[in-house]
Design brief:
Elements lengths: L5 H14 L10 E7 L7 E8 L5 E7 L2 E6 L7 E7 L6 E6 L2 E6 L5 E5 L8 E6 L8 E4 L4 E5 L6 E5 L7 E6 L5 E5 L2 E5 L5 E6 L7 E7 L8 E4 L5 E5 L7 E5 L7 E6 L6 E7 L2 E6 L3 E6 L7 E6 L12 E5 L4 E8 L3 E11 L2 E9 L9 E2 L3 E10 L5 E9 L5 E5 L1 E7 L3 E4 L4 E5 L6 E11 L2 E13 L3 E12 L11 E10 L5 E10 L4 E5 L1 E7 L4 E3 L5 E5 L7 E13 L2 E13 L4 E5 L6 H11 L4 E5 L13 E5 L11 H12 L3 E5 L18 E5 L8 E3 L9 E4 L8 E4 L4 E6 L4 E8 L4 E5 L6 E3 L4 H11 L13 E2 L5 E4 L3 E5 L4 E2 L9 E5 L8 E2 L5 E6 L5 E7 L9 E8 L5 E11 L16 E2 L11 E7 L3 E8 L5 E10 L2 E7 L12 E10 L3 E10 L2
Parallel strand pairs: 30-38, 48-49, 48-50, 50-51, 51-58, 61-69
Antiparallel strand pairs: 1-28, 2-3, 3-4, 4-5, 6-7, 7-8, 8-9, 10-11, 11-12, 12-13, 14-15, 15-16, 16-17, 18-19, 19-20, 20-21, 22-23, 23-24, 24-25, 26-27, 27-28, 29-31, 31-35, 31-36, 32-34, 32-37, 33-36, 37-38, 39-40, 40-44, 40-45, 41-43, 41-46, 42-45, 46-47, 52-55, 53-54, 53-56, 54-59, 56-57, ...
């Protein structure tokens, strides 16, 4: 509620004087239970409710200078438990999570967190969140522990984690404008106020909100709030504008939202809407509570009402808030001038209500919660909220959840009395699997006696387990040209942060890094993290991963890596596959998003990804890159008032240097062209900022004869007070506002560089006759930037043999037999090589020890020679051979150079092995194949087998007599029938019987 001023207080005084003796009116099916007006003439605002574990019901009533907490369990004896003072404000919002109430105002003081666990004795403020000072509305997605707050009038949404209820942490800031919001299952419905729209966002990744749909309301007023139906298919919205209807929308498919029905209350000024079951509960300023029948979505209608305001209404007075969510059928109404009303509506009654689940895990860790790998007993209490009593009641549970085995599926309640909370006298028991995920199990809960089923309901039980996520990673140049970029031919360290988003600690966390990328070689693939507590983040700072990029890697190449993390539960590992991408060299596009609202930046990321282009995204949380050489284009997002960024001379110089090397820059900002001070970068756009503008930006149209011809967009950016522009020199306008007529974007071709400057926000454009993706394509075409996906398939290097020869000799081989390529003749392939530990093409071991390689460019014959290298590398030297086709696509294979002792010098132990040995496979992790080395010192019957995690044999690699020697078998990740096996841990076992017996087992990781 924003349109309230001094006039409102006068209206209230007059109304109370004239109409104070008039009784409130209601429909026959809505009954007044209690009316409380303890703080008159102080204004009231919103209300919320809380049901304690013991079944007592409380009203949380917003008062201008605080929060009144009232026990309404007995409506004949309603009393105030306590009053919590707050900053003085006519706007207040209240929501609950667990046993806490969260209270915000539009004055100051941040967000109060009130502990309700001591009710009915007391309640008190136990913490204050200072991440914001003011907020008009909040909502809590309780199942996902996320609080959403409107910053203040006209601001976007703050997403705030309540993983620790007393220490909220903001995770993101999203949207264009928010007045109120509703959230469920990580989907947020935002009422966008003056924008005349509501938006649907996906917050599954609460750090990276995704806009699913923005829906404009036909002839919309001030879109005030939205509430989702219980089945998630419909949305009820209000507009807080006189004469605007309550609207009911089909939102089951966000891409095909449909307005189904409308309702206008007698007063015509709705405030807040809520939905419970088949009814909507709407607080009207002049009509009090309006109850809407939603059973026919195409024809919603009035089902009941209670008018709290004693006058005729017609302004921002009367009922502010409502709360229909008590199981008892009690409904709260908060009236601005006359306080709290408790009414009864039969349609709000829940006949039975699960009250509490009490857990006994004394056979486990004894923390009174259901953890992975535990056997748990639990009892249930249920509120019978009906006038009927039952005898001989028992309950049964069942679930299809694979992580839970029900051992005892029934519990005895005995007598089930009316209007009473009854506890089960016996317990259910379940076993929880060791590898259970962090989630809520839903049991089918059925109450019955000898007469049949009394009631059935889902019964949720939280299962506590770790859940590892890739929280963040950084790539740091380790060796190379020193430009702080991971470029082709260089090595880099990868610093990884893992987050345990689960509700139980993860023990002995470790990780393996793997890749199938032809250009990437991993030289340090294993790292440890130790224990990661619930909600904690830990890094691999002491054991970073190390990777190398082939010298022939295309610049901007996105290398796909997979982190296989594991945590140990009861001695058993649980694995997580966490993919991420590392860019080798400079990506195509650099995005510098210093708009405080981050409006355009995320939109550009999505469109560029769809176009197959790579990018670097940098917001104000990091440093502006100082060298943009190599990027095809840069996008600067400065934003609009009051969240705009004013470009400094030092920042501008970075982009000036880039343009002077032939770059391309797009820059948008509502005030940067006329209002803010110009920099030397601005002069390179050939734009004249004519005037600061006056809030009149509406529809914009492309200019005929330019690359925006026939493009038309409506505009709803963060602010429509934007600079008016004109072109200088050879620059030309590409967009103009249609009414009034002025230019909003200018393009400039300076010959050696190109620029586009705009005063609107790209993200504020809405499709008229074209799409924003088409506009971005046109901008990139003007910059002569485009994705260039390869038109052919990469070559494939087959398994190279080991290069094995004596020191002082040469190894010569034809490489053409070890490569295939669908589009190219093998004679067109160019071969490269490098050592993982390279030094100018040689592998140096000591003063006189070296290995050299030469490849004939025509015959593709490789020659490998060595001098003395066997002294320091008795186990061989890894070398990578890379085949590059004419279009620059490549594949590689790693093999070993093993240098034997020259004639006359005896190698340690001779060439035959002295003992049985089963060595570690390589590569590991692997995909699609790996090598398994083993040795037998004497003639023996040998059997080499592969088993899965269940101990089932999947492949026999060797079965028969083998003479003494060293062997190496290749496994291609397939079973005996040739079927491709899934990712996971596998065991390989060597059993040999000669004069001696030998058995050994090792593990390996197949990673797809």
């Amino acid at each position: 509620m924003h349109f309230i001023g001094l006039i409102r207080n006068v209206l209230i005084f007059i109304s109370l004087t004239i109409f104070g003796i008039i009784q409130a009116q209601s429909s026959p099916n809505v009954t007044l239970l209690a009316h409380i007006n303890n703080y008159s003439p102080t204004d009231y605002n919103d209300c919320w409710g809380y049901t304690a574990p013991d079944g007592r019901e409380y009203a949380l009533l917003g008062v201008e200078n605080g929060t009144s907490i009232l026990d309404i369990t007995d409506t004949d004896n309603v009393y105030e438990v306590t009053f919590i003072s707050s900053a003085n404000s006519i706007w207040k919002d209240i929501k609950t999570y667990q046993h806490y109430a969260y209270v915000v105002t539009e004055s100051s003081g941040g967000m109060q967190i009130i502990d309700l666990s001591n009710l009915p004795a007391s309640a008190s403020v136990v913490a204050t969140y200072a991440g914001f000072s003011t907020s008009h509305n909040i909502y809590i997605d309780e199942a996902n522990a996320m609080l959403y707050a409107e910053g203040s009038f006209n601001e976007p949404v703050r997403a705030i984690s309540l993983a620790d209820p007393l220490n909220p942490v903001q995770t993101s800031f999203f949207g264009i404008e928010c007045h109120d919001m509703y959230a469920r299952d990580n989907i947020v419905y935002v009422a966008e106020g003056g924008q005349g729209s509501f938006a649907i966002y996906d917050l599954t990744d609460n750090q990276n909100p995704v806009l699913l749909k923005r829906q404009f309301v036909p002839n919309g007023g001030y879109v005030h709030n939205a509430w989702l139906s219980d089945d998630g298919n419909y949305l009820l919205t209000t507009e807080e504008t006189s004469g605007k209807t309550i609207k009911y929308w089909d939102v089951g498919n966000p891409n095909a939202i449909t307005l189904l029905s409308e309702y206008l209350g007698p007063d015509g000024l709705a405030h807040n809407a809520h939905i419970k079951g088949d009814y909507g509960y709407v607080s009207h300023y002049g009509d009090g509570l309006e109850i809407i029948d939603l059973t026919d979505p195409t024809n919603i209608s009035r089902a009941g009402w209670y008018d709290t305001y004693p006058g005729a209404g017609g302004s921002f007075v009367g009922a502010w808030g409502a709360f229909p969510f008590f199981a008892s059928g009690k409904v709260l109404i908060s009236d601005i001038s006359t306080g709290l009303y408790v009414v009864f509506f039969e349609g709000a009654v829940e006949s039975y209500l699960l009250q509490d689940i009490m857990i006994d895990d004394s056979q486990g860790n004894g923390n009174n919660q259901a953890d992975f790998g535990e056997s748990v007993d639990f009892t249930v209490s249920v509120l019978n909220n009906t006038p009927d009593s039952f005898t001989g009641v028992w309950a049964t549970i069942q679930t299809s959840d694979p992580s839970v085995t029900v051992q005892t599926d029934s519990a005895w309640f005995g007598d089930f009395n009316a209007n009473t909370v009854t506890f089960a006298r016996t317990a259910f028991s379940i076993d929880i699997s060791v590898d259970a995920s962090d989630h809520s199990v839903s049991f089918d809960f059925v109450l019955q006696n000898s007469a049949g089923v009394i009631w059935q309901s889902p019964l949720p039980l939280a299962i506590h387990a770790p859940n590892l996520e890739l929280f963040d990673f950084t790539v740091t140049e380790l060796s190379g040209n020193g430009n702080n970029s991971f470029d082709p031919g260089e090595s880099a360290e990868i610093f990884v942060k893992l987050k345990n988003s689960g509700s139980a600690s993860a023990g002995d966390v470790s990780a393996l890094l793997g890749t199938n990328d032809a250009y990437i070689n991993i030289t340090q693939m294993q790292s440890t993290f130790g224990m990661i507590g619930a909600g904690q983040v830990r890094s691999n700072g002491a054991s970073k991963f190390v990777i190398e990029a082939s010298p022939v890697t295309p610049s901007g190449h996105p290398a796909e890596l997979v982190l296989t993390a594991s945590e140990v539960r009861n001695g058993q590992p649980v694995y997580y596959s966490l993919p991420f991408t590392v860019i080798v060299g400079k990506p195509d596009i650099y995005i510098w998003d210093v708009d405080g609202n981050h409006s355009t930046g995320p939109v550009l990321q999505s469109l560029l990804s769809s176009a197959g282009l790579t990018f670097t995204y940098q917001d104000q949380s990091g440093l502006l890159a100082q060298d943009l050489t190599g990027y095809k284009a840069a996008f600067i997002c400065l934003g609009t008032y009051s969240n705009n960024h004013v470009l400094t001379g030092q920042e501008a110089q970075v982009f000036v240097n880039y343009l002077n090397t032939g770059g391309n820059v797009y820059m948008e900002g509502g005030d940067t062209w006329a209002y803010d001070g110009a920099t030397n970068l601005h002069t390179m756009f050939n734009i004249n900022g004519i005037t600061d503008g006056s809030g009149d930006l509406g529809n914009i149209a492309g200019i005929p004869g330019t690359f925006t011809e026939n493009m038309i967009f409506s505009y709803s950016g963060d602010n429509n007070f934007i600079d008016h522009l004109s072109a200088l020199g050879n620059a030309f306008a590409i967009f103009k506002n249609q009414s009034p007529d002025y230019f909003t974007a200018i393009a400039n071709d300076a010959g050696t560089y190109r620029t586009i400057g705009a005063s609107f926000e790209f993200a504020g454009l809405h499709d008229g006759n074209t799409a924003t993706a088409t506009l971005l394509d046109s901008i990139l075409a003007f910059f002569e930037v485009g994705a260039a996906p390869p038109s052919n398939t990469p070559p494939q290097v087959l398994d190279l043999p080991e290069f094995r020869f004596a020191s002082g000799e040469q190894f010569v081989m034809d490489l053409d037999g070890f490569v295939t390529d669908a589009e190219s003749d093998t004679g067109e392939i160019n071969w490269e090589y490098y050592f993982p530990n390279k030094n100018n093409g040689k592998h140096n071991f000591g003063k006189n020890d070296s290995i050299t390689i030469s490849i004939d460019s025509i015959s593709h014959r490789i020659t490998v020679a060595a001098v003395g290298a066997y002294h320091n590398e008795p186990n061989g030297v890894p070398v990578v051979l890379v085949a590059v086709d004419p279009q620059g696509l490549a594949d590689r294979d790693t093999t070993q150079i093993t240098v034997l002792a020259p004639t006359g010098i005896e190698d340690d132990g001779g060439e035959l092995p002295a003992d049985f040995a089963l060595k570690q496979n390589y590569p590991n992790p692997f995909n699609p194949q790996t090598r398994i080395p083993f040795s037998v010192p004497e003639s023996a019957e040998v059997r080499l087998e592969v088993f899965n995690m269940l101990g089932q044999k999947v492949r026999v690699l060797v079965d028969g007599q083998r003479p003494a020697g060293s062997y190496e078998m290749v496994w291609d990740g397939r079973d005996e029938q040739g079927g491709v096996l899934p990712s996971g841990i596998y065991f390989y076992r060597l059993a040999a019987r000669g004069d001696r017996k030998y058995v050994a087992v090792r593990t390996m990781l197949l990673m797809k």
